[in-house]
Amino acid sequence: MYTKVIMKKIIFKKNINENADSGQNEVKMTNFKKDTDKSDFVFTQETVFDALKNVMDPELPVSIVDLGLIYSVETADNNISIKMTLTTPGCSMGSAISKQAENVLYALGAKNVLIEIVWDPPWNPNMMSDEAKQKLGM
After folding, report:
1. Which stretches does DSSP call E strand in 8-128?
2. How many Å apart are CA 57 and CA 6, to the nearest integer?
3. CA gap 31, 12 in Å, rounded
4. Residue 21 buriedness (CB in 10 A; 0-12 / 13-18 / 19+)
5. In this predicted model, what pLDDT tens digit does every residue of 65-121 receive, in sequence order?
6. Backbone angles phi, psi at 10, to 5 degrees
7. What pLDDT does residue 131 have?
8. Residue 32: which residues within 8 A CB-CB, separation 6 or more?
9. What is the assigned CATH class of domain 1-13+41-129?
10. Fewer Cβ atoms within 10 A, N terminus or C terminus of the chain?
11. What's residue 3's pLDDT?
12. Which residues contact 105 (CB under 8 A, 6 or more apart)?
Protein backbone atom coordinates (compact mmCIF):
# COMPACT_ATOMS: atom_id res chain seq x y z
CA MET A 1 0.00 0.00 0.00
CA TYR A 2 1.18 3.53 -0.63
CA THR A 3 0.43 6.96 0.72
CA LYS A 4 0.05 9.90 -1.61
CA VAL A 5 -1.04 13.41 -0.74
CA ILE A 6 -3.33 15.08 -3.24
CA MET A 7 -4.71 18.56 -2.77
CA LYS A 8 -8.52 18.77 -2.56
CA LYS A 9 -9.01 15.03 -2.28
CA ILE A 10 -12.02 13.40 -0.70
CA ILE A 11 -11.90 9.72 0.17
CA PHE A 12 -15.13 7.79 0.52
CA LYS A 13 -14.53 4.42 2.14
CA LYS A 14 -17.25 2.21 3.60
CA ASN A 15 -17.87 -1.49 3.88
CA ILE A 16 -21.49 -2.03 2.88
CA ASN A 17 -21.72 -5.02 5.21
CA GLU A 18 -21.53 -2.71 8.24
CA ASN A 19 -25.08 -1.38 7.74
CA ALA A 20 -27.81 -3.60 6.41
CA ASP A 21 -30.54 -0.98 6.40
CA SER A 22 -33.77 -0.90 4.39
CA GLY A 23 -32.58 -1.80 0.91
CA GLN A 24 -30.04 1.01 0.49
CA ASN A 25 -27.34 -1.57 -0.18
CA GLU A 26 -29.30 -3.38 -2.89
CA VAL A 27 -27.37 -3.68 -6.15
CA LYS A 28 -29.00 -4.42 -9.47
CA MET A 29 -26.63 -5.86 -12.05
CA THR A 30 -27.55 -5.34 -15.66
CA ASN A 31 -24.91 -6.81 -17.91
CA PHE A 32 -21.93 -7.90 -15.82
CA LYS A 33 -21.54 -11.53 -14.81
CA LYS A 34 -18.91 -13.50 -12.94
CA ASP A 35 -17.05 -16.18 -14.85
CA THR A 36 -18.80 -19.30 -13.59
CA ASP A 37 -16.00 -21.58 -14.84
CA LYS A 38 -13.69 -20.19 -12.17
CA SER A 39 -14.17 -21.00 -8.51
CA ASP A 40 -12.55 -17.78 -7.28
CA PHE A 41 -13.43 -14.54 -9.01
CA VAL A 42 -10.42 -12.25 -9.42
CA PHE A 43 -10.81 -8.59 -10.26
CA THR A 44 -8.80 -7.12 -13.09
CA GLN A 45 -8.81 -3.56 -14.37
CA GLU A 46 -11.11 -4.69 -17.19
CA THR A 47 -13.64 -6.41 -14.91
CA VAL A 48 -13.76 -3.36 -12.63
CA PHE A 49 -14.50 -1.09 -15.60
CA ASP A 50 -17.16 -3.53 -16.82
CA ALA A 51 -18.78 -3.57 -13.38
CA LEU A 52 -18.67 0.23 -13.10
CA LYS A 53 -20.56 0.54 -16.39
CA ASN A 54 -23.57 -0.44 -14.25
CA VAL A 55 -23.18 2.73 -12.16
CA MET A 56 -25.23 5.46 -13.75
CA ASP A 57 -24.95 9.16 -13.10
CA PRO A 58 -28.11 10.01 -11.12
CA GLU A 59 -28.76 13.10 -13.24
CA LEU A 60 -27.87 11.71 -16.69
CA PRO A 61 -28.71 8.43 -18.44
CA VAL A 62 -24.99 7.61 -18.80
CA SER A 63 -22.58 5.41 -16.81
CA ILE A 64 -19.72 6.95 -14.86
CA VAL A 65 -17.31 5.03 -17.12
CA ASP A 66 -18.83 6.46 -20.31
CA LEU A 67 -18.84 9.94 -18.76
CA GLY A 68 -15.07 9.61 -18.34
CA LEU A 69 -15.21 10.02 -14.57
CA ILE A 70 -12.94 7.03 -13.84
CA TYR A 71 -9.28 8.04 -14.10
CA SER A 72 -7.53 4.91 -12.82
CA VAL A 73 -8.19 1.48 -11.35
CA GLU A 74 -5.72 -0.65 -9.41
CA THR A 75 -6.45 -4.16 -8.20
CA ALA A 76 -4.51 -6.52 -5.94
CA ASP A 77 -5.94 -9.64 -4.30
CA ASN A 78 -9.52 -8.37 -4.81
CA ASN A 79 -8.68 -5.07 -3.13
CA ILE A 80 -9.62 -2.22 -5.44
CA SER A 81 -8.39 1.36 -5.55
CA ILE A 82 -10.13 3.82 -7.87
CA LYS A 83 -9.32 7.42 -8.71
CA MET A 84 -12.26 9.25 -10.16
CA THR A 85 -13.64 12.71 -10.52
CA LEU A 86 -17.04 14.35 -10.71
CA THR A 87 -18.37 16.66 -13.39
CA THR A 88 -18.00 19.65 -11.04
CA PRO A 89 -16.44 20.15 -7.60
CA GLY A 90 -19.84 21.25 -6.31
CA CYS A 91 -21.58 18.06 -7.46
CA SER A 92 -23.96 17.06 -4.68
CA MET A 93 -24.22 13.47 -5.92
CA GLY A 94 -20.57 12.54 -5.26
CA SER A 95 -21.20 10.40 -2.20
CA ALA A 96 -24.17 8.66 -3.86
CA ILE A 97 -22.12 7.85 -6.96
CA SER A 98 -19.16 6.53 -4.97
CA LYS A 99 -21.43 4.43 -2.73
CA GLN A 100 -23.11 2.95 -5.81
CA ALA A 101 -19.68 2.07 -7.25
CA GLU A 102 -18.62 0.45 -3.97
CA ASN A 103 -21.88 -1.54 -3.76
CA VAL A 104 -21.40 -2.98 -7.25
CA LEU A 105 -17.82 -4.05 -6.48
CA TYR A 106 -18.61 -5.47 -3.03
CA ALA A 107 -21.52 -7.43 -4.53
CA LEU A 108 -19.04 -9.09 -6.90
CA GLY A 109 -16.70 -10.06 -4.05
CA ALA A 110 -14.27 -7.19 -3.53
CA LYS A 111 -12.51 -7.33 -0.15
CA ASN A 112 -11.85 -3.60 0.16
CA VAL A 113 -12.75 -0.69 -2.07
CA LEU A 114 -11.05 2.69 -1.83
CA ILE A 115 -12.46 5.48 -3.99
CA GLU A 116 -10.55 8.73 -4.23
CA ILE A 117 -12.29 11.77 -5.69
CA VAL A 118 -9.66 13.92 -7.41
CA TRP A 119 -9.98 17.23 -9.24
CA ASP A 120 -6.85 17.12 -11.37
CA PRO A 121 -7.25 16.92 -14.27
CA PRO A 122 -10.61 18.67 -14.17
CA TRP A 123 -13.38 16.83 -15.97
CA ASN A 124 -14.60 18.17 -19.30
CA PRO A 125 -17.10 16.89 -21.89
CA ASN A 126 -14.29 15.72 -24.21
CA MET A 127 -13.62 12.92 -21.69
CA MET A 128 -16.96 11.26 -22.51
CA SER A 129 -17.12 8.21 -24.74
CA ASP A 130 -18.71 8.51 -28.17
CA GLU A 131 -21.64 6.48 -26.84
CA ALA A 132 -22.20 8.98 -24.01
CA LYS A 133 -22.00 11.93 -26.39
CA GLN A 134 -24.56 10.29 -28.66
CA LYS A 135 -26.95 9.58 -25.75
CA LEU A 136 -26.68 13.21 -24.67
CA GLY A 137 -27.09 14.57 -28.21
CA MET A 138 -23.60 16.03 -28.49
Report:
1. 10-12, 70-76, 79-84, 112-117
2. 24
3. 25
4. exposed
5. 999 999 999 999 999 999 999 999 988 888 999 999 999 999 999 999 999 999 999
6. -120, 130
7. 92
8. 47, 50, 51, 53, 54, 104, 108
9. alpha beta
10. N
11. 34
12. 43, 48, 51, 52, 80, 113
Spatial separation of the C-alpha atoms in residues 44 and 69, rounded to whole Å: 18
The pLDDT of residue 60 is 86
Amino acid type, 73:
V
Angle between helices 45-52 and 94-107 (to 10 degrees): 120
Strand ranges, E, within the chain: 10-12, 70-76, 79-84, 112-117
In the beta sheet, which residues pair with residue 112? 79
Do β-strands 112-117 and 10-12 pair in parallel, antiparallel, or remain unpaired? antiparallel
Q: Tell me the mean pLDDT in the region 125-135.
A: 94
Q: What is the pLDDT of residues 41-69, one digit of tens each?
A: 789 999 999 999 999 998 888 999 999 99
Is the distance from CB of 62 to CB of 135 less than 8 angstroms? yes
Query: Considering the entire predicted model, what is its pTM?
Result: 0.70
Domain boundaries, the chain: 1-13+41-129
Q: How far apart are CA 115 and CA 83, in angstroms?
A: 6
